[in-house]
Design a protein that fits this description.
Helix content is about 10%, strand content about 50%. The protein is built from four helices and 14 strands. It has helices at about 1-15, 130-135, 140-145, 165-170, and strands spanning about 35-55, 55-80, 85-100, 105-110, 115-120, 120-125, 150, 160, 195-205, 215-230, 235-245, 255-270, 275-285, 295-305. Strands 1, 2, 3, 4, 5, 6, 7, 8, 9, 10, 11, 12, 13 and 14 form a 14-stranded antiparallel beta sheet that branches. It is globular. The termini are far apart.
């Protein structure tokens, strides 16, 4: 009987660590130490279509946005309970915003040199960030080169954000958590290919135009650990993500709302750090802001890829140009 008991105990232990299909389970945790840094290229595109039904007629506008950014992460502290404190900066960026309305196309291009505006393809104005700042306008280069502090737990969940005061007072339309929304929140149990888990989190939408500004959103995510792959020389877990979002409380002017993020992420099996991801966004709103019947539809995608580790001076050792930089 003693031998049988030992065998059964061994089989029970083995069943905890092996799935029925023979896949070995493992913990996936986000880990960094103060000597670690990481660099990423981030590409984002969105198209937003506005339609307002006014008494004098229908008003239609289309807004296209493209951005390419170099993202640098630096670990400043890692506590014994698994909390990682990071600093994030965006040393290189190029953004293009195009508005089409009434047969006229307006464009603003912003990069490290400054901002340029065009109407129907013709240059109208251009200025450096120093010139714009002297006129009381935002200096985006200063913002993106400012260090933003983040704290993450072992699962990759953002615990705290410490941003420069200028960010909260002058750049209220920027959501500094956007980079981490492209990553995965891991479960607190071992998983293997084929495993699924769910996470529910809350976040505040940055202040800005529209009915969602400063509102609390509830994100419900479903993740699936699909397979193991070797990418950029790293052993990774491919994880599929599907996230639906809804306002936590009723918004009277918002009659219909749908928002989803769907895609995949490749994360290092050894440290849970993002290696590559692609996410697609869909959002549709119908309501009556200001008493005007309005419909807004946004589609887009965000691609993130790890590049060479930055040097000790905080710059990438690989002088790879940003895709789409003009």
């Amino acid at each position: 009987m003693k031998r049988v008991s030992v065998v059964l105990t061994g089989l029970l232990f083995l069943s905890i660590w092996l799935r029925a299909d023979g896949q070995k389970t493992r913990m996936i945790e986000f880990r960094m130490t103060p000597v670690n840094s990481a660099a990423y290229d981030l590409h984002a595109e969105t198209t937003t279509e506005y339609v307002s039904y006014k008494s004098q007629g229908t008003d239609k506008r289309t807004l296209n946005f493209k951005a390419d950014m170099r993202v640098l992460l630096r670990c400043v502290k890692a506590t014994s309970d698994g909390v990682v404190q990071l600093e994030i900066t965006y040393p290189d960026f190029s953004m293009e915003t195009t508005m089409t309305e009434g047969g006229r196309t307006s464009m603003i291009i912003s990069d490290g040199a400054g901002a340029r505006s065009y109407v129907d393809g013709k240059l109208q104005e251009q200025a450096t960030w120093e010139e714009l700042e002297k006129e009381g306008n935002p200096n985006l280069r200063k913002l993106f080169n400012s260090s933003i502090g983040f704290s993450l737990d072992r699962t990759g969940k953002v615990l705290e954000v410490k941003a420069p005061p200028e960010l909260s007072t002058r750049f209220t339309w920027i959501d500094v958590k956007q980079f981490f929304q492209n990553q995965v929140i891991f479960p607190d149990v071992p998983v293997a290919p084929g495993s699924e888990w769910n996470q529910t989190t809350e976040r505040e939408v940055p202040r800005g135009p529209g009915p969602l500004g400063r509102k609390i959103m509830v994100d419900q995510a479903t993740y699936e650990y699909q397979s193991n792959e070797t990418v950029l020389g790293r052993e990774c877990a491919r994880i599929r993500a599907f996230v639906t979002s809804q306002p936590k409380e009723e918004i009277l002017s918002l009659k219909e709302f749908q928002q989803t993020y769907e895609g995949w992420a490749l994360v290092g099996l050894d440290n849970g750090q993002l290696v590559m991801s692609e996410m697609k966004l869909f959002q549709e709103m119908k309501g009556t802001p200001g008493g005007i019947k309005t419909e807004v539809k946004t589609t887009g995608q965000v691609k993130t890829s790890r590049v060479s580790v930055p040097s000790s001076k905080g710059a990438s050792t690989e002088k790879k140009p940003l895709a789409g930089t003009k």
